[in-house]
Design a protein that fits this description.
The chain has helices at residues 2-22, 39-67, 163-166, and strands spanning 177-192, 195-213, 216-228, 231-234, 237-240, 244-259, 264-279, 286-288, 293-305, 310-324, 331-345. By secondary structure, the chain is an alpha+beta fold. The protein has a domain at 170-345: Porin (Beta Barrel), CATH 2.40.160. It has an eight-stranded antiparallel beta barrel. The longest helix is centred in the N-terminal third of the chain and has 29 residues, at 39-67. The radius of gyration is 69 Å and the shape is rod-shaped. 16% of the residues are buried.
């Protein structure tokens, strides 16, 4: 029995040494010598050997995974490696699955994420809606409400005209030297209490001056009305003065203004005037009817340009004056009207 126990211990030591040398590389194959009297002991030893081999197979892949460096991205699945005589076969399903890469929190989701899920509502804007009465600011370039543009210092510029339309310098303008000649027909009367001379008359006038500013003229004028064979009336009786003429003449300063572009003008003259009676055949034989008195002449007319500086037109003249009788202290009142044809140079 002692010899059998020593042989059993020797067999156990051989088995443990074989397991220690072959566990990291290859599965352990143990050969037992059959013993008729120790079947139960052999079954126990075989169970321990199988359990140790399984433990080595489970620990070896986990140690290899911990020792390997971390991979940047999960590699593609590779076919299982064929087991060699010196390596243990590891099933592919036993390896732990690689973790998926997690995008950083600040990354912007790509457009392929699609629309938000149903029921999702966009948050309201942070600034909210404007309060009541708030108006949107005007667009850039426009003044704020209530702002008025300052008036222009010189008004709007005159419209542009080609030089051909404007004509030569000074043409069709009232500036520089001024001359107006007039000739027409009308009527005149000289009257005082109980007496009156009247009749149709011929009228003439001539004015010479210059422009103070454009369209404003200052001039001096002489004029005359002549009544051939006037009718003399005393009370209810009247007689025609055969062979006699009554003349009204005067001279004085005046001013005229032209309204452009109508070329319509208004002129007024303050005159020193006198009335005389003279024979028709001999003007030297005459007599003064009045002394020198005052009169005012008003003329309204219109001209049409016939050249750069000449204009022809028509005018109406009104005259009213007063003068003392040459022989007594009575006063004669002078009144005249004439329709004139005019020629104006300016």
């Amino acid at each position: 029995m002692a010899a059998k126990g020593a042989a059993l211990r020797l067999d156990r030591l051989d088995v443990m040494q074989a397991l220690h040398e072959s566990a990291p590389r290859v599965p352990v194959v143990v050969t037992f010598r059959p013993m008729k009297s120790h079947r139960a002991i052999q079954g126990t030893i075989i169970s321990c050997v199988v359990a140790c081999a399984g433990l080595c197979l489970a620990v070896s892949p986990a140690a290899l995974a911990q020792a390997a460096p971390p991979a940047a991205a999960p590699p593609a699945a590779a076919p299982p490696k064929a087991a060699s005589s010196g390596d243990a076969l590891v099933a592919p399903s036993d390896a732990p699955p690689a973790a998926a890469a997690v995008p950083p929190a600040s990354a912007v989701p790509p457009p392929s994420y699609g629309y938000p899920p149903p029921g999702y509502a966009y948050p309201p804007p942070a600034y909210g809606y404007p309060p009541p009465g708030y108006g949107y600011p005007p667009p850039y370039g426009y003044p704020p409400p209530g702002y008025a543009y300052p008036p222009q210092a010189h008004g709007y510029p005159p419209p542009y005209l080609p030089r051909a339309a404007m004509g030569a310098s000074g043409s069709h303008t009232h500036d520089g030297f001024y001359m107006r000649l007039s000739l027409g027909v009308g009527g005149a009367s000289v009257s005082k209490s109980g007496e009156k001379y009247s009749g149709g008359s011929g009228a003439f006038g001539a004015a010479f001056g210059g422009a103070i500013t454009q369209h404003l003229i200052l001039y001096g004028e002489i004029f005359g009305h002549s009544v051939h064979e006037p009718k003399y009336k005393v009370g209810a009786n009247s007689v025609t003065e055969r062979g006699w003429d009554m003349d009204i003449g005067g001279v004085g300063p005046g001013v005229a203004y032209f309204f452009m572009p109508l070329n319509l003008y208004l002129s007024g003259t303050l005159l020193l005037q006198r009335v005389t009676l003279s024979e028709s055949n001999d003007s030297n034989r005459g007599q003064a009817l009045t002394d020198v008195g005052l009169a005012a002449s008003l003329m309204v007319g219109k001209d049409w340009w016939v050249s750069d500086n000449w204009g022809l037109g028509v005018a109406a003249q009104f005259l009213l004056g007063s003068a003392r009788d040459h022989y007594d202290d009575s006063n004669w009142t002078t009144a005249a009207f004439a329709l004139m044809f005019t020629a104006t140079y300016n």
